[in-house]
Amino acid sequence: MSILTNDMSFKHRHLLGIEELSENDVSNILNLSERYIQLNREQQKKHNILRGKTLVLLFFENSTRTRTSFELAGKRLGADTINISVSSSAIKKGETLIDTAMTLNAMHPDLLVMRHPNAGAVNLLSHHVRGSVLNAGDGAHEHPTQALLDALTIRRHKGHLNGLIVAICGDIMHSRVARSNILLLQLMGAKVRVISPPTLTPTGIENLGVDVYHDMQQGIDGCDVIMMLRLQSERMQGSFVPSTREYFRFWGLDRKKLSFAKEDAMIMHPGPMNRGIEIDSEVADDITRSVILEQVEFGVAVRQACMELLALNLQKEG
Amino acid sequence: MPNKPDIAYINSRLIDPSSNLDVKGGILTRGSKILDLGSHLFNPDLSEETIMIDCQGHILAPGLVDIHVHLREPGHEHKETIESGGKSAAAGGVTTLCCMPNTNPVIDDVALIEFIQRRAREAKSVKIYPFAAVTKGLEGKQLTEIGMLANAGAVAFTDDGLPIMDSQVMRRALAYAKAFDMIVSQHAEDLSLSGCGCMAEGQMATKLGLPGIPDASEIVIIERDLRLVEITGGRYHVAHISTAQGVEAVRKAKEKGLQVSCEAAPHHFILTDSDVGNYRTFAKMAPPLRSEENRLAIIDGLSDGTIDAIATDHAPHDQESKRVPMEHASNGVVGLETLLSLTLELVNNGHLTLLEALSKITCEPADLIGLKAGKFYKGAPADMVIFDPDAEWTVDLEKIISKSKNTPFEGRKMIGKVNRTIVDGRTVFKQEA
Prior knowledge:
The complex is a heterodimer.
Chain A: H1 23-40, E1 54-59, H2 65-76, E2 80-85, H3 94-105, E3 111-116, H4 121-126, E4 132-138, H5 144-158, E5 165-169, H6 176-187, E6 191-195, E7 211-213, H7 216-220, E8 225-228, H8 244-251, H9 255-258, E9 266-268, H10 281-284, H11 292-317
Parallel strand pairs in A: 1-2, 1-3, 3-4, 5-6, 5-8, 6-7, 8-9
Chain B: E1 7-16, E2 21-30, E3 33-38, E4 51-54, E5 59-62, E6 64-69, H1 82-91, E7 94-99, H2 110-123, E8 127-132, H3 146-152, E9 156-158, H4 167-178, E10 183-186, H5 191-194, E11 199-200, H6 203-208, E12 212-213, H7 216-232, E13 235-238, H8 244-255, E14 260-264, H9 266-270, H10 292-303, E15 309-310, H11 319-322, H12 339-348, H13 354-359, H14 363-369, E16 384-394, E17 413-423, E18 426-430
Helix pairs in contact in B: 4-7, 7-8, 8-10
């Protein structure tokens, strides 16, 4: 049972990043995801689109929600899923990564979902396997399914992406979510602002077409969507920000700063949240504004859509 | 309670460097503010209630602004306190000063900013604005809460007394402080180059057999920092600049349009390493007194505008810190009470005009740090100094008001003497007749 229509062509072998996608690709993924949202809300959630296919989840970095979301997506599509968690300390050399890839390859996986702490590692892996690789996050580079699920969440609330003003706030420097979202939102015609302390603003980010702000109130002013990022203390070497209380004071989203956005501005967060650091519980839990749990729900649907489109190409190859 | 009467300061040579004003005139104050000023107040016909203060033809200028003062409180109250330092400032014609955070504890927390503010209020002398530390405990590692400190009233940031040696920390400090439009002031000294040096490297140090500090110790840090300013766009200030090539580096950076400034201390444009003489520990400070070539370059920097301000680096030390061999002596000299006269030497020697010289100790430093001080206009705070530019006096340790007497200018003939210092309309110092 495929729910694909004929106009949904997807010409990519892997999903490594938003950078390689066209506006049409994104629309197709989002449209297909919409149908999965409905299917996932039914009693019978299991389908057989990936029956007989092997899905390998290869995580070199701790993850709960992303791994679970991919695993659930694969299982609901009928794939056989296996989890391989490799502590990053065990993998120190490039050869080892490729060796791991070769070993897996010998087992004929069809879909490989991979997360790795180093930017570019997923891309490297994709050159050494026969199946389709889905990037579940590589260093501070890309996290395409997160950006897609964010776009889906925004589209369902606002009806469109074109013309919206989206503020991405916080630790831009260490965020793959920010990079994928900047690419995707601009591709779909939204205007993107980044708001961050200067020490967490990557050099040259304005060349990606975004407006850079350091002052939260100015940056939020008139926004349709506020996307908060997690302060990734575990990736920080040295002193990027003085303290979490100072960070919350100036870059944490609270009721007062939120008041500068549009009245119907929606609040997003890719999770996991640091309450009281980048976001105040009062606004994180405000069901009239916060769509954080919907993001999680739609994440499964988006990943199902991506897997189906990639699997279709595998079938064509025979 | 009836309002306090207005006060008129008449019969003066009225000078305001910020507006190039230099006329015979006077100022009328009401409460803490300047109500009126100009030549019509030279010999005015005012209501009987107005108190008249005759300036006797002497200069009436904005109260001096010193952006580099060590008040030693909290932690070293035996050297200076906020109160004693305030009195010393008032005696020197200084009505606004910035105190440095290298106290014990270090001013690296909002509560300590509030402590300084409270003690300054209690002292009721001059206006005191704290610089806060750039890094926690001056350790050069973890940034302080620059945003919260700035909101609490810190006017700039520095680890003064120590440089920020780690380039990554310095880069982040410049970048982070930019978000709050705050200046990072650097004590530019490469500690590894300075080593155990206790005076400027050169003929004098060699003769005395003392380990020397090369000019490069300052220059390499300034040049490094300027590259970090280029990539961060931050606001950077060089404290107590003392080398010719350091001044040249700042000059070039300004030409490039970088947000860079610097200050020089009077001892660096008056004295040289030869004044260390016979192991005079009162002539030991950081940076050290340097060569004549460097001294002249500081004067050039002041006259061409490269150096924005003259600041004392007032650094009080008790006798015990100085009555030791040169290598063990503490760095620093007191300076608040000699600031005006030493600055006027630049005028008397023909290097700067009177207006130029006064602007370096009034409006220029005030504007740099963003202080509401150092200028005359209607509605401005009534912070003023009356001084006789021709009066002669001799530096006498007995008469120094600061708690510490460590000046290298003992016995020096000075020209230019403060008669009266006024803060918010209150006389906080009056020269005994």
